[in-house]
Specification:
275 residues; alpha/beta; Cobalt-precorrin-4 Transmethylase, domain 1; four-stranded parallel β-sheet; 12 strands
Length: 275
């Protein structure tokens, strides 16, 4: 049985940067905490906790110390509140997310009605919305795009981990909604690379394993794309592998979301090779 890794998989630049920043600010006394999980990978979050980086859901849970802004970013009001509480602020927001946030802010200031294409419950999308001063509309589907009313000026930004194909499809439904449209394709390069590599590999294997947090949007999207090509399993760790998945299988493909640590990918790869 042949086991093949996708050309692009695992940690992206923004996630590597966030993990490095978190580790540089670890504290043995538990006063360094991320606001929410720094990335969407439970195993990495747990490892960081053991290394001295905790996690809180609200700023009022941290009476003193340092708050680390996670890779998904937060709205401007969080920075203000942290400052009012006298907390140290370390910003680990992914630069690509920061670009999408600032793009939304600038579009509003330029008089555009802003549309954010992405998952409305995703923390990154919420942060972009907050940088639009709460004035943007969030759209996930072509049906929602069709329902949008017309505007004199329409500005479009996107969740950085959104599907490129789905983004283009939704934009085609928005072009009739304004005579002046500004489209800022804020999908990051790593997302495009991972999705393209995963789909190419899935078309040439019998089974795909997609590794990453079940709460990770970009990992879930990889699994959805691969499932269109072949049988696909979304797993978090090697412990989830089932012998029955590989009966009469000749080729296994492996990819991983942008927040999946190398050590987890290696464990899955090794376990597959040893079958």
């Amino acid at each position: 049985m042949e086991v093949i890794l996708a050309d692009y998989l695992g940690f992206c630049y923004g996630v590597k940067r966030a993990i490095t920043i978190a580790r540089e600010n670890a504290s043995a006394d538990g006063t360094a905490c991320t606001l929410g999980p720094i990335i969407h990978n439970p195993q990495m979050v747990e490892r960081l906790k053991r290394e001295g980086v905790g996690s809180v859901d609200r700023l009022d849970e941290l009476r003193h110390g340092t708050v680390i802004i996670r890779s998904h970013g937060v709205g401007p009001q969080v920075y203000d509140e942290a400052e009012r509480r006298g907390l140290g602020i370390v910003d680990a927001t992914c630069p690509h997310v920061k670009k999408a946030q600032i793009s939304a802010k600038l579009l509003v200031e330029e008089g555009y009605h802003v549309v954010i294409i992405g998952e409305r419950e995703h923390p990154e999308v919420k942060s972009i919305f907050e940088w639009s001063n709460g004035q943007a509309e969030i759209i996930e589907t072509t049906a929602e795009a069709d329902a949008l009313k017309t505007w004199a000026k329409l500005g479009i930004v996107c969740q950085t981990t959104f599907s490129g194909g789905k983004f283009r499809e939704i934009v085609t439904h928005l072009v009739e909604k304004s005579r002046e449209i500004k489209v800022l394709r804020t999908i990051c390069t790593a997302t495009d690379q991972r999705q393209a590599a995963a789909m190419e590999l899935a078309a040439n294997v019998d089974v795909m394993l997609v590794i990453g947090g079940k709460n990770s949007a970009n990992t879930t999207r990889l699994a959805q794309l691969c499932a269109k090509q072949c049988k696909t399993y979304h797993i978090e760790t090697a412990d989830e592998l089932q012998p029955g998945w590989f009966d009469k299988i000749e080729k296994i493909g492996i990819t991983a979301g942008a927040s999946t640590p190398d050590w987890i990918i290696k464990e899955v790869y090794k376990k597959c090779q040893n079958r």
